[in-house]
Amino acid sequence: MTTTGLDSPRPAAPGVDPAAPKRSLVEGTANRLVVCLVALVVLVLLGFASLFVGSGEIPASVVWEALRGDRTDTLALLVTDYRIPRAMIAVLVGCALGVGGALIQAITRNPLADPGLLGVNSGSFFAVVLSVTISGTANLSSYVWWSFLGAAVAAVSVYVIGSRGSGATPVKLVLAGLAFGAVLNGITYAVTFLDPDVFDKIRFWQSGSLQGRQIDTFWWALPFVVVGVLTAVLLSRSLNALALGEDLAKSLGVHLFRTRAIAMGALTLLCGAATAAVGPIAFLGLMVPYLARVVARSDQRWIVPLSALFGPVIFLGADVLGRVLVPSEMPVGVVVAFLGAPVLVAVVRTRKKSGL
Amino acid sequence: MSADLVKSPGTSPDPAPAEAPPRSLRPALRLGPEISFPVHVRSLVVFLALLVITVVVAGWAMTLGTIDVPVGTLIQAVFGSGEDGIVRLIQNWRLPRVVIAIVGGASLGIAGAIFQSLTRNPLGSPDIIGFNNGAYSGALIAILVLNTGRTGSTIGALIGGIVAAAIVVGLATRGGGLQGMRLIVVGIAISAVLASLNVYLILRADLETAMAAAAWGMGIFDTITWSQVLPIVIALVVLVPVLCGFARSLRLLELGDDSAAGLGLNANRTRLILIVVGVGFTAAVTAAAGPILFVALAAPQLARRLTGSAGIPLAASAAMGALLLLVSDVAAQQLLAPKQLPVGVITLTLGGAYLIGLLIAQSRKA
């Protein structure tokens, strides 16, 4: 094993994730359950908060009455038709991207992995723009399958390019993602640039926004996310074995190719559905598993459910923040990027001997 | 050597560059027993060849367009004789466009060469480490938020590029040393934040302004006039002599800080000056023509391969950058003619493909 440069961030010892803090901050199952509970409470509180804030003043009393079904005027409809679905979509997408991030980090054994950084979102975006250009319509039902296809092709391509030769190292994967994403973005920009109509349809979606999404988006994405999350939970034991290194995993009876392929499939469902629903979101998949590892160290059986909780908390929180922060509403994707980049910088700065 | 690209192995990422001959065997320009300049013959040939190709492509590019101009008429028109309309077409539209591609490409090539030398990493180019996106943010804030005019956007781009550069370098520096790989990952992070900020800024604008800003954001040359070419030329006139003064120091820095210090160089101060010069080259181009990605990444590496030199050749990088951007712009004009693409779209796509190729080529050697 080389110890110089970027080939080194393999687990130093079996079971030790190089990105995880040396010791978990929270030891013991009971304490971790407490963390889960706290996260759940925060999530519920945020959910309520998200119903009360937003562009346009709606008095709290109206929100209450709308929630209880006592009012059906326009203001109440704004709450039931927009704010509630919006919160539900935020939770769903946060969950999808959090678990998606945990999966991609486990498959690539790379703490820098993120569906956005690794070009998966670009793939989705590219395919969606293609479908909007061809069909001329921009509604979810027409492009969600394209989004899956794009996510899958990009995920596999970046992984293949990044793991050629000496195997996938964190920075090689990030570079492969950057390169592949650049090619896709270049073509996407060319298409949107040539057709102002497509450009207009796509630009709100492009920034990653929850604005104006309605409940049908939620129902569309729900089954895919549920299947994806369940698959991730079922896979977590095999992924734990994978973290020990390929040889050890094999000797433990893990079918490497099958595990990776199933995980890639789940990843595609999660990221494809999330991107189709709200547009490309970067950094969420990076920071959620990072925080989950602070609690759970490197045990996927904890990381997956914790990510499924932390993701919605951060995403919904970012959405609320974006609405409070500026009068004209900052898209949630932008807020997430501002929250997530410091985490990436922190990862890079704290990993002293990894060669980063 | 398993993963040269990501290992920051000195300035020679390619394990098989032609070995530079020992110094004493190199041809030298001797002007007397005491005065002599080492001349790297192959570098000189490559540099001149690139120049000739660039001029030929430039001439060919100027004959293309909605009105075809034969070569003879073109040459006359460049010097101001011939039909009035043609002269105006050539002198006011096609010539500045070709000139900005050449001058801008050369600037980006030089900037890339400086940063790749300083970070000792083929990926240490201004586009990957966030300067372009920073400059774009600065310009967008000037145009869309502060409602300043063209000059405002130029100043905004300059400030934005420098601020982004300062943030990235500041965050990547730890314990005094500037590490190539960390610089790149921090740069990618900051770049991503700025990119999303840019999307947000465009989003707030009305469709027409947004389209224009987005087009400029991809680098567009089809509305270029002499007034936009002038600032780049001025920047070059100021920056090139400064760079020439520090070219030798750059070579010394490539040897490593300790050796450079041993040879009497203040490494930190020199590096800072060179970073400022590199940012200046990038910001000048971005201010005039929008962020153009990947030229600064690819040009120095291609130049180094062609010249077979051990370090990164500045002059050949400049010539290669000019040629790359010019060819990209011709492609942007002609690929879907009469519709025109922003040149940045071409460089982004080609550059991404180049980077993929680089990663695959590196892995073959593993």
TrEMBL record, chain A:
One of its GO terms (molecular function) is transmembrane transporter activity. Pfam families: FecCD. Keywords: Cell membrane, Membrane, Transmembrane, Transmembrane helix, Transport. It is found in: Cell membrane. It is a multi-pass membrane protein. CDD domains: TM_ABC_iron-siderophores_like. It comes from the Bacteria. Residues 1-21 are annotated as: Disordered. One of its GO terms (cellular component) is plasma membrane. The chain crosses the membrane at residues 33-53, 84-104, 116-137, 143-161, 173-194, 218-240, 261-290, 302-325, 332-350. GO terms for biological process: siderophore-iron import into cell. InterPro entries: ABC_BtuC-like, ABC_transptr_permease_BtuC. SUPFAM superfamilies: ABC transporter involved in vitamin B12 uptake, BtuC. The keyword Disulfide bond does not apply. Belongs to the binding-protein-dependent transport system permease family. FecCD subfamily. PANTHER family: FE(3+) DICITRATE TRANSPORT SYSTEM PERMEASE PROTEIN FECC-RELATED, FERRIC ENTEROBACTIN TRANSPORT SYSTEM PERMEASE PROTEIN. This is Iron chelate uptake ABC transporter family permease subunit. The lineage of its organism: Bacteria, Bacillati, Actinomycetota, Actinomycetes, Nakamurellales.
